[in-house]
């Protein structure tokens, strides 16, 4: 699936799991890719799965920003 040019993707380098305030289990695994919505701060970035409406936070140090696809 083509990704719109304005979307910035991050690549997960380390697995991480936590329970959000609403009780939802958030789990990321190495090599997964997410759409970066906002670099909220140095510790947490706001992301979403491509095509999924529900955004969530992941630890910034566990992912790396991918260069734009030319």
Automatic annotation (TrEMBL):
CC per GO annotation: cytoplasm
A molecular-function term among this protein's GO annotations: GTPase activator activity
SH3 domain mapped to chain residues: 5-68
InterPro entries: Rho-GAP, SH3-like_dom_sf, SH3_domain
Keyword terms: GTPase activation, SH3 domain
Keyword Signal: no
TM stretches of this protein: none
Pfam families membership: SH3_1 (PF00018)
Official protein name in the record: Rho GTPase-activating protein 27
Source taxon at top rank: Eukaryota
